[in-house]
Specification:
With 100 residues, the chain is an alpha+beta fold. The protein is built from two helices and four strands. The longest helix is centred in the N-terminal third of the chain and has 13 residues.
Length: 100
Amino acid sequence: MSSIDLTLPFKIKLPEKESKELDQFYNFVFGELRATWAGRIGHYPWGEEHQISRNQDGYIYVYENNGIPHLTADCGLGFWNSPVREVHLIDVLPLEDSIV
């Protein structure tokens, strides 16, 4: 992983569904960050209707809750008091796994 600042909170552009980039995204957030979804209702970008966030802007937000990184696709939750900086997926992947 690179030396990019991963201080929480931050946001990452959501890759296309069923893509290599999405696999790399999930490997990064669940593997490197050891993050978890904020909940089973209203946080996912896709899924069953009750799971899907109604406030999506194309990003996944990563924030801390009780010392654990959490993910949400809901840009309107208000866990942050100021604009959230964007982290680019290509900047956090190992060079051999970079998106070309």
